[in-house]
Amino acid sequence: MKSLANEFFSTMAKGAESHQSENSDQYDLVVNGIKDERDVSRQVALVEEMVASGVDAIVIAPADSKVLVPALRRAIEAGVIVVNIDNRLDVEVLKQEGVSIPFVGPDNMAGAKKVGDHLAANRKGDKVAILEGIRTSYNAQQRLKGFEAAMQEAGMEIVSSQSADWEMSRANTVASSMLSEHPEISGILAANDSMALGAIAAVKGAGRAGEVQIVGFDNISAIRQAIEDGKVLATADQHGDQLAVFGIEAALEQIQSQASGSDVSIEDVETPVDLITAEILSQP
């Protein structure tokens, strides 16, 4: 996985571990993650370590959509089944490397569009800013497109769009600068909930709590509380606790397929992504 410092990925790990404990007769599980979302070289090294240790399958949420592909190609050549979750690997690089890796995950653009549409429908103004994820990540690119589509459709102006590398502290710094440079900002669309938390701190620091609406993506527990407290308007739930499970089940299916001699390739699987608002959280 990516950074285990991010609650979304620690939740993903717990979901995988829970699934394994309930299916301990079917497979053994090794959980790994990197400390920093940008530490792509460490994630490449983890892939190589797992191959060397003799695993049968790797389920990966890549920190970078392009850089991980050669390492995963080598894993496949070594006989390891690879399933891509969360952040889709780059299609062109996969073609260049001559490999096909199934993607199991949500439509990030559609999820971000739902969140953006909700902000537009409840807006306090027409000027917004976007906190992007790491720009080489496919899911960051798709969420940006979803936000942009929602704002364009609603006739709202994006006055600033910058990357905060998925990180809370970086988002606090970037959002603070945005609010200082563009005091007319009435909404901030954050491509993940960690950055939304940073935006909350920035808005508070600017003395604009209650004036600037914030939306996120991931539905971590801290954001659910912030939604209930009125500090965040909405987020998108891509069911992180189940995302790794969907990938694991796809990998197990492929292992069983190979064992039976049929060796049927895994197809891409689109998983759910749902809008989360205060109204939804208040439902029993």
The rounded distance between the terminal residues' Cα atoms is: 32 Å
Secondary-structure element order, N to C: HHEHEHEHEHEHEHEHEHEEH
Query: Main β-sheet: number of strands, strand sense, barrel status?
Result: 4 strands, parallel
Count of helical regions: 11
Unreliable sequence segments: none
Shape: elongated
> What would you call the structural class?
alpha/beta
Q: Kindly state the mean pLDDT as a whole number?
A: 95
- CATH architecture annotation name of the largest domain: 3-Layer(aba) Sandwich
Q: Name the helicity range.
A: 40-55%
CATH topology of the largest domain: the name is: Rossmann fold
CATH superfamily of the largest domain: Response regulator
Report the sheet-strand fraction. Answer: 5-15%
Q: What's the level 1 CATH class of the largest domain?
A: Alpha Beta
The strand line-up of the biggest sheet is 1-2-3-9
Q: How many beta-strand segments? A: 10
Supply the number of structural domains: 2
